[in-house]
Design goal:
This is Peroxisomal fatty acid beta-oxidation multifunctional protein AIM1. Keywords: Isomerase, Lyase, Multifunctional enzyme. The chain is mainly α. It has a single domain, classed as N-(1-d-carboxylethyl)-l-norvaline Dehydrogenase, domain 2 (Orthogonal Bundle), CATH 1.10.1040.50. About 50% of the residues lie in helices and about 5% in strands. The chain contains six helices and two strands. The protein has a two-stranded antiparallel ribbon with strand order 1-2. β1 and β2 form a beta hairpin.
């Protein structure tokens, strides 16, 4: 999924946010990660940097420097209060996707 996001370009993710909000309303969780990727110059394969580093003639390579962007997103989204993962029940997951 990360390479797919890089391939499409993270600007696409931001562009469709409003469509998802209209379609799914409160069931939609929007992480600040995509916008943070763009702000840090990581638009994906189109500019050679996203979750991976893209160089002509070679396979995508994981970019460990993206971890600081992911961590900032976690803090902004408060998805790990106190640094611990939140618990989501099977029932809650089903409700989110229906």
């Amino acid at each position: 999924p990360f390479q797919l996001g890089d391939l499409a370009g993270h600007g696409i993710g931001v562009a469709v946010k409003d469509l998802y909000d209209k379609a799914y309303g409160d069931r939609m969780f929007w992480s600040p990660l995509t916008e943070l990727l763009l702000k840090s110059g990581r638009n994906g394969k189109i500019n050679g940097r996203g979750y991976y580093v893209y160089e002509k003639g070679s396979k995508p390579k994981p970019d460990s420097s993206v971890l600081s962007v992911v961590e900032e997103s976690r803090k902004l989204a408060s998805i790990m209060p106190g640094g611990k993962p939140i618990s989501v029940s099977d029932k809650e997951i089903v409700e989110m996707i229906l």
